[in-house]
Amino acid sequence: MAETDQLHDLRHILEHNLGLPFTEGNGIAVLPDEHEAALTPLIDAIRHAWRSVDLCTFDLPRGAGRTELAAALAERAQAGVKVRVVLDAVGARDAGKDFVRGCRSAGIRMSWFRPRALPASGRVSYRCQRRILVVDNLVGFTGGAGIASSPGHDVQLRVQGPAVRGLAGAFGQIWAEAGNGPPEVYLDPHEQPAAGNAICQVIRGSSGMGWDDLATAAHALLSAATKRVRIIAPYLLDEPAWIGDVALAVRDGVGVDIIVPGRVPPRRFGPATPDAVIGQLTAAQAMVWAFEPGLVHGALMIIDDAVALVGSVGVGRRGTDRDEELAVCVIDETVVTQLARKFNEALWSSRRL
Fold this sequence. Notes:
alpha+beta, Endonuclease, Chain A, 15 strands, 10 helices, globular, about 350 residues
């Protein structure tokens, strides 16, 4: 795919500000929004694993998805495949003793990420919000929803090609922090074959203080927008720098549409969007919408119908330094068009705030 001047500029803005190169030759598939349809390719990939399966997720609620997942993981582990699982100790605390016992008895290496008691308020930070599945280091999945997450709007990607290494590295970091020692260092003799035309950058967010790569990427993309910005976010925080970026974009003639959850269950782990933030954004002439069906699991940012950022992350610096997050930046006309269609579908089910 020949790069236009704008795509060239956006790519180099991100590479310069993050010090993280894009990879070429990736195949990106946008999975269906319906939960069962989105789950099927993940389970199929696990069932066809012959070398390794690495999985980390924030939540793992009861349901058919969890049962199907456990069966697929156990079958592969018993067949000699190296299977590793990391569950967030707060988000997945309802995973169930049967699931954990079944995994371990099948030979699956399983760890909890940052075990600690849940505060009475239910509002927690410093969790692992990364949703990653990597199979045989050849195909990966990531996005906003867990394997068995509750219904709601989600964006999930299947990734093939060199960008899979970025997902594998992000899993390795979480695996190490979950008490398994330093990240495993090895040379994978299997080359990542080209799988498509997408240009991708896998970007990690950390729960430390200050500006991480994801916050920097969001800032750079908003600053580079010239026509239109479309955002879906699980939550927005009172972050002056990010709100200022939106206000500057609107002042420069950029149309900004932002979709947030229409309702947040009381036991949801994570913040709701404060009314004050919505007020600041609407005062800046951004269009803010509430997704009426309810939850929004993952984040999506589309810049000028040219570049898309897809992941688990909340928008803004404080949205990215709360938890361990992950996003994939994609430059590909077909993929961005599909993601724009998903945004429009969500917009049709939203009301303006």
